[in-house]
Protein backbone atom coordinates (compact mmCIF):
# COMPACT_ATOMS: atom_id res chain seq x y z
CA UNK A 1 0.00 0.00 0.00
CA UNK A 2 1.18 3.54 -0.65
CA UNK A 3 0.66 6.61 1.46
CA UNK A 4 0.76 10.05 -0.15
CA UNK A 5 3.03 12.55 1.61
CA UNK A 6 2.28 16.09 0.60
CA UNK A 7 4.06 19.40 1.04
CA UNK A 8 3.84 22.89 -0.30
CA UNK A 9 5.59 22.00 -3.50
CA UNK A 10 5.81 18.28 -4.26
CA UNK A 11 3.88 15.14 -3.25
CA UNK A 12 5.87 11.92 -3.12
CA UNK A 13 4.53 8.39 -2.73
CA UNK A 14 6.29 6.41 0.02
CA UNK A 15 5.55 2.73 0.80
CA UNK A 16 3.57 2.06 3.98
CA UNK A 17 5.07 -0.72 6.11
CA UNK A 18 2.87 -3.31 7.82
CA UNK A 19 3.79 -3.46 11.49
CA UNK A 20 5.71 -6.61 12.35
CA UNK A 21 4.48 -9.09 14.94
CA UNK A 22 6.29 -11.84 16.87
CA UNK A 23 4.03 -14.45 18.49
CA UNK A 24 5.07 -17.24 20.85
CA UNK A 25 2.88 -20.33 21.18
CA UNK A 26 3.73 -22.05 24.47
CA UNK A 27 1.42 -24.98 23.66
CA UNK A 28 1.13 -27.31 26.70
CA UNK A 29 4.15 -25.71 28.40
CA UNK A 30 5.70 -24.84 30.84
CA UNK A 31 5.03 -27.33 33.61
CA UNK A 32 4.17 -24.99 36.47
CA UNK A 33 2.55 -21.65 37.25
CA UNK A 34 5.84 -20.42 38.71
CA UNK A 35 7.66 -21.15 35.45
CA UNK A 36 4.94 -19.47 33.40
CA UNK A 37 5.07 -16.35 35.58
CA UNK A 38 8.87 -16.25 35.42
CA UNK A 39 8.80 -16.59 31.64
CA UNK A 40 6.22 -13.81 31.36
CA UNK A 41 8.27 -11.58 33.66
CA UNK A 42 11.33 -12.05 31.47
CA UNK A 43 9.31 -10.73 28.52
CA UNK A 44 7.80 -7.79 30.39
CA UNK A 45 10.85 -5.59 29.85
CA UNK A 46 10.94 -6.30 26.12
CA UNK A 47 9.24 -3.49 24.24
CA UNK A 48 11.08 -3.68 20.92
CA UNK A 49 8.19 -4.89 18.75
CA UNK A 50 4.62 -6.14 18.89
CA UNK A 51 4.86 -9.40 20.83
CA UNK A 52 2.07 -11.82 21.81
CA UNK A 53 2.39 -15.07 23.75
CA UNK A 54 -0.16 -17.87 23.92
CA UNK A 55 0.11 -19.63 27.32
CA UNK A 56 -1.97 -22.63 28.38
CA UNK A 57 -5.33 -21.34 29.59
CA UNK A 58 -4.80 -22.29 33.29
CA UNK A 59 -1.86 -19.85 33.28
CA UNK A 60 -3.55 -17.15 31.20
CA UNK A 61 -4.70 -14.99 34.13
CA UNK A 62 -1.26 -14.93 35.74
CA UNK A 63 0.49 -14.19 32.45
CA UNK A 64 -2.02 -11.47 31.61
CA UNK A 65 -1.42 -9.91 35.03
CA UNK A 66 2.26 -9.62 34.15
CA UNK A 67 2.11 -8.65 30.47
CA UNK A 68 -1.38 -7.21 29.94
CA UNK A 69 -4.07 -8.55 27.65
CA UNK A 70 -2.62 -6.93 24.53
CA UNK A 71 0.40 -9.23 24.78
CA UNK A 72 -1.45 -12.44 25.67
CA UNK A 73 -3.54 -14.74 23.47
CA UNK A 74 -5.77 -17.73 23.99
CA UNK A 75 -4.69 -20.97 22.29
CA UNK A 76 -8.27 -21.90 21.40
CA UNK A 77 -11.96 -20.98 21.67
CA UNK A 78 -15.15 -23.04 21.84
CA UNK A 79 -16.91 -23.09 18.46
CA UNK A 80 -20.25 -24.42 19.69
CA UNK A 81 -21.60 -21.65 21.90
CA UNK A 82 -20.68 -18.97 24.40
CA UNK A 83 -21.78 -21.07 27.40
CA UNK A 84 -23.37 -24.43 28.18
CA UNK A 85 -22.65 -28.11 28.78
CA UNK A 86 -19.32 -28.33 26.93
CA UNK A 87 -16.92 -29.88 29.41
CA UNK A 88 -13.32 -28.75 29.02
CA UNK A 89 -14.07 -25.91 26.60
CA UNK A 90 -13.22 -22.21 26.93
CA UNK A 91 -15.76 -19.68 25.67
CA UNK A 92 -15.25 -16.33 24.01
CA UNK A 93 -16.71 -14.37 26.95
CA UNK A 94 -14.34 -16.20 29.33
CA UNK A 95 -11.39 -15.17 27.17
CA UNK A 96 -12.62 -11.58 26.95
CA UNK A 97 -13.16 -11.45 30.73
CA UNK A 98 -9.41 -11.87 31.20
CA UNK A 99 -8.69 -8.93 28.92
CA UNK A 100 -7.08 -11.19 26.32
CA UNK A 101 -7.01 -9.58 22.90
CA UNK A 102 -6.00 -12.38 20.51
CA UNK A 103 -7.23 -15.93 19.86
CA UNK A 104 -5.28 -18.59 17.96
CA UNK A 105 -7.53 -20.50 15.57
CA UNK A 106 -6.84 -23.40 13.22
CA UNK A 107 -3.40 -24.39 14.49
CA UNK A 108 -2.25 -27.57 12.78
CA UNK A 109 -2.11 -29.44 16.09
CA UNK A 110 -5.78 -28.64 16.66
CA UNK A 111 -6.56 -29.80 13.13
CA UNK A 112 -4.49 -33.01 13.33
CA UNK A 113 -4.92 -34.18 16.93
CA UNK A 114 -8.33 -32.78 17.84
CA UNK A 115 -10.25 -32.98 14.57
CA UNK A 116 -10.73 -29.27 13.89
CA UNK A 117 -11.85 -29.42 10.27
CA UNK A 118 -12.51 -26.40 8.07
CA UNK A 119 -16.08 -26.03 9.35
CA UNK A 120 -14.95 -26.02 12.99
CA UNK A 121 -12.19 -23.53 12.20
CA UNK A 122 -14.70 -21.25 10.45
CA UNK A 123 -17.00 -21.38 13.47
CA UNK A 124 -14.09 -20.49 15.76
CA UNK A 125 -13.19 -17.53 13.57
CA UNK A 126 -16.77 -16.26 13.89
CA UNK A 127 -16.81 -16.79 17.67
CA UNK A 128 -13.57 -14.83 17.99
CA UNK A 129 -14.60 -11.92 15.81
CA UNK A 130 -17.93 -11.69 17.66
CA UNK A 131 -15.92 -10.45 20.65
CA UNK A 132 -15.27 -6.72 20.87
CA UNK A 133 -11.75 -5.64 19.96
CA UNK A 134 -10.32 -9.18 19.82
CA UNK A 135 -8.05 -10.33 16.99
CA UNK A 136 -8.20 -13.74 15.34
CA UNK A 137 -4.84 -15.28 14.40
CA UNK A 138 -5.86 -17.80 11.76
CA UNK A 139 -3.42 -20.62 10.99
CA UNK A 140 -3.31 -22.34 7.62
CA UNK A 141 -0.78 -24.66 5.99
CA UNK A 142 -0.07 -27.87 4.12
CA UNK A 143 1.29 -31.29 5.05
CA UNK A 144 4.45 -32.80 3.59
CA UNK A 145 2.42 -34.99 1.23
CA UNK A 146 0.45 -31.99 0.00
CA UNK A 147 3.63 -30.03 -0.65
CA UNK A 148 5.15 -33.00 -2.49
CA UNK A 149 2.03 -33.13 -4.67
CA UNK A 150 2.51 -29.46 -5.54
CA UNK A 151 -0.85 -28.38 -4.08
CA UNK A 152 0.38 -26.07 -1.29
CA UNK A 153 -1.34 -23.00 -2.73
CA UNK A 154 -4.57 -24.93 -3.37
CA UNK A 155 -4.67 -26.18 0.22
CA UNK A 156 -3.98 -22.72 1.65
CA UNK A 157 -6.62 -21.14 -0.58
CA UNK A 158 -9.26 -23.68 0.47
CA UNK A 159 -8.46 -23.30 4.16
CA UNK A 160 -8.44 -19.52 3.91
CA UNK A 161 -11.63 -19.27 1.84
CA UNK A 162 -13.59 -21.60 4.13
CA UNK A 163 -12.35 -19.98 7.34
CA UNK A 164 -13.28 -16.49 6.14
CA UNK A 165 -16.61 -17.40 4.53
CA UNK A 166 -19.18 -14.88 5.70
CA UNK A 167 -16.63 -12.64 7.42
CA UNK A 168 -17.32 -9.03 6.51
CA UNK A 169 -14.48 -6.99 5.05
CA UNK A 170 -14.87 -4.49 7.89
CA UNK A 171 -13.66 -7.17 10.34
CA UNK A 172 -10.47 -7.98 8.46
CA UNK A 173 -8.47 -5.42 10.41
CA UNK A 174 -8.84 -7.88 13.30
CA UNK A 175 -7.51 -10.88 11.38
CA UNK A 176 -3.88 -12.01 11.22
CA UNK A 177 -2.94 -14.98 9.01
CA UNK A 178 -0.23 -17.40 10.15
CA UNK A 179 1.12 -19.65 7.41
CA UNK A 180 2.60 -22.73 9.05
CA UNK A 181 3.73 -25.61 6.84
CA UNK A 182 2.72 -28.59 8.96
CA UNK A 183 5.84 -30.55 8.00
CA UNK A 184 8.06 -27.82 9.49
CA UNK A 185 6.41 -27.65 12.93
CA UNK A 186 8.51 -29.18 15.68
CA UNK A 187 10.71 -30.96 13.16
CA UNK A 188 13.60 -28.54 12.93
CA UNK A 189 12.86 -28.16 9.22
CA UNK A 190 12.31 -24.63 7.95
CA UNK A 191 10.69 -23.73 4.68
CA UNK A 192 13.25 -21.93 2.53
CA UNK A 193 12.63 -18.17 2.83
CA UNK A 194 12.02 -17.75 -0.90
CA UNK A 195 9.53 -20.65 -0.88
CA UNK A 196 7.75 -19.18 2.15
CA UNK A 197 7.65 -15.82 0.36
CA UNK A 198 5.99 -17.38 -2.67
CA UNK A 199 3.31 -18.92 -0.44
CA UNK A 200 2.75 -15.66 1.43
CA UNK A 201 2.35 -13.83 -1.87
CA UNK A 202 -0.19 -16.47 -2.97
CA UNK A 203 -2.09 -15.95 0.29
CA UNK A 204 -2.35 -12.24 -0.49
CA UNK A 205 -3.62 -13.11 -3.98
CA UNK A 206 -6.32 -15.25 -2.38
CA UNK A 207 -7.25 -12.44 0.04
CA UNK A 208 -7.53 -10.06 -2.89
CA UNK A 209 -9.91 -12.49 -4.63
CA UNK A 210 -12.05 -12.89 -1.51
CA UNK A 211 -12.05 -9.18 -0.62
CA UNK A 212 -9.90 -6.65 -2.50
CA UNK A 213 -6.33 -5.54 -3.09
CA UNK A 214 -6.39 -3.08 -0.20
CA UNK A 215 -7.23 -5.75 2.35
CA UNK A 216 -4.70 -8.12 0.81
CA UNK A 217 -2.02 -5.46 1.16
CA UNK A 218 -2.84 -4.63 4.77
CA UNK A 219 -3.51 -7.98 6.48
CA UNK A 220 -0.46 -9.17 8.38
CA UNK A 221 0.73 -12.62 7.32
CA UNK A 222 3.15 -14.43 9.65
CA UNK A 223 5.37 -17.46 9.08
CA UNK A 224 5.40 -20.35 11.57
CA UNK A 225 7.40 -23.55 11.51
CA UNK A 226 10.50 -24.24 13.65
CA UNK A 227 11.47 -20.56 13.64
CA UNK A 228 14.83 -20.10 15.36
CA UNK A 229 17.38 -17.35 16.03
CA UNK A 230 19.41 -18.77 13.14
CA UNK A 231 16.56 -18.58 10.61
CA UNK A 232 14.55 -15.51 11.60
CA UNK A 233 16.59 -12.81 9.83
CA UNK A 234 16.37 -14.54 6.45
CA UNK A 235 12.68 -15.24 6.93
CA UNK A 236 11.94 -11.66 7.86
CA UNK A 237 13.86 -10.30 4.86
CA UNK A 238 11.01 -11.47 2.62
CA UNK A 239 8.62 -8.68 1.54
CA UNK A 240 5.33 -10.45 2.25
CA UNK A 241 6.31 -11.95 5.64
CA UNK A 242 5.22 -9.66 8.46
CA UNK A 243 6.31 -11.65 11.48
CA UNK A 244 6.70 -15.11 12.93
CA UNK A 245 4.71 -17.58 15.03
CA UNK A 246 7.27 -19.31 17.23
CA UNK A 247 6.89 -22.62 19.04
CA UNK A 248 9.63 -24.17 21.17
CA UNK A 249 12.04 -21.24 20.91
CA UNK A 250 9.47 -18.98 22.62
CA UNK A 251 10.01 -20.99 25.83
CA UNK A 252 13.72 -20.13 25.93
CA UNK A 253 14.13 -16.44 26.83
CA UNK A 254 17.50 -15.88 25.13
CA UNK A 255 16.30 -17.54 21.92
CA UNK A 256 12.98 -15.71 21.92
CA UNK A 257 14.67 -12.36 22.62
CA UNK A 258 16.95 -12.87 19.64
CA UNK A 259 13.93 -13.66 17.47
CA UNK A 260 12.13 -10.56 18.74
CA UNK A 261 15.22 -8.51 17.87
CA UNK A 262 15.45 -9.84 14.32
CA UNK A 263 17.18 -7.61 11.79
CA UNK A 264 14.53 -5.91 9.70
CA UNK A 265 15.95 -4.88 6.32
CA UNK A 266 12.47 -3.99 5.03
CA UNK A 267 11.96 -1.34 7.70
CA UNK A 268 15.45 0.05 7.18
CA UNK A 269 15.08 0.22 3.42
CA UNK A 270 11.67 1.89 3.57
CA UNK A 271 12.83 4.35 6.23
CA UNK A 272 15.86 5.29 4.13
CA UNK A 273 13.76 5.59 0.98
CA UNK A 274 11.26 7.73 2.87
CA UNK A 275 13.95 10.11 4.06
CA UNK A 276 15.44 10.29 0.56
CA UNK A 277 12.10 10.87 -1.17
CA UNK A 278 10.33 13.11 1.32
CA UNK A 279 9.25 16.35 -0.28
CA UNK A 280 11.98 18.30 -2.00
CA UNK A 281 11.59 22.08 -2.23
CA UNK A 282 10.82 23.45 -5.66
CA UNK A 283 12.90 26.34 -6.89
CA UNK A 284 11.07 29.58 -7.53
From TrEMBL:
InterPro entries: Aldolase_TIM, TIM_sf, TrioseP_Isoase_bac/euk, Triosephosphate_isomerase, Triosephosphate_isomerase_AS
UniProt keyword list: Cytoplasm, Gluconeogenesis, Glycolysis, Isomerase
Record has Isomerase as a keyword: yes
The UniProt record lists the keyword Isomerase: yes
Highest rank taxon of the organism: Eukaryota
GO-annotated biological processes: gluconeogenesis; glyceraldehyde-3-phosphate biosynthetic process; glycerol catabolic process; glycolytic process
Broadest EC class assigned to this enzyme: isomerase
Catalytic activities: D-glyceraldehyde 3-phosphate = dihydroxyacetone phosphate
GO cellular component terms given for this protein: cytosol
EC number: 5.3.1.1
Name of a matching Pfam family: TIM
Pathways involved: Carbohydrate biosynthesis; gluconeogenesis; Carbohydrate degradation; glycolysis; D-glyceraldehyde 3-phosphate from glycerone phosphate: step 1/1
GO molecular function, one term: triose-phosphate isomerase activity
Quaternary structure annotation from Swiss-Prot or TrEMBL: Homodimer.
Similarity remark: Belongs to the triosephosphate isomerase family.
Function according to Swiss-Prot or TrEMBL: Catalyzes the interconversion of glyceraldehyde 3-phosphate and dihydroxyacetone phosphate in the glycolytic and gluconeogenic pathways.
Record's protein name: Triosephosphate isomerase
